[in-house]
Design a protein that fits this description.
globular, mainly alpha, two-stranded antiparallel sheet, about 130 residues, 6 helices
Length: about 130
């Protein structure tokens, strides 16, 4: 990955692999979730799902084309989203449902139980 301050290198990297460049964040997230499961760090897959869920359901729908260009991202690719969902499904049974995965800045905290409920709703919304 080129230095973020080197615009010409960034454009060259994007031009060399436009799809890979603009979807890398989601592919890295899926890879991190997979590695977490392999190494018995199941919380990583649950947190990867939570981040992807917030991005795809709250942030991404409010973005317009210029926002994606500024961030150097495309919409989350289906294959990466499906991989993150699958990794979370594997991980959740291994976690205590009350484990605090993250604090939210509100009285509520992110727990595997909340991730599981979100995951079921997310899958139901995507079902054909």
């Amino acid at each position: 990955m080129p230095d973020h301050r080197d615009a010409s290198a960034l454009f060259a990297a994007r031009d060399a692999d436009p799809v890979g460049f603009t979807t890398r964040a989601f592919r890295w997230l899926a890879a991190g979730a997979a590695k977490g499961n392999v190494e018995d760090q199941y919380d990583l897959a649950a947190m990867a799902y939570a981040w992807m869920f917030i991005w795809t359901s709250v942030v991404e729908p409010k973005m317009v084309g210029a926002d994606f260009i500024k961030l150097g991202l495309d919409a989350a690719p289906y294959d990466a989203v499906d991989a993150i969902v699958s990794h979370a499904e594997v991980a959740l049974p291994h976690l205590d449902s009350d484990l605090v995965l993250a604090t939210t800045g509100t009285p509520e905290q992110l727990t595997p139980a909340k991730v599981a409920r979100s995951l079921e709703a997310f899958k139901a919304a995507r079902a054909p």
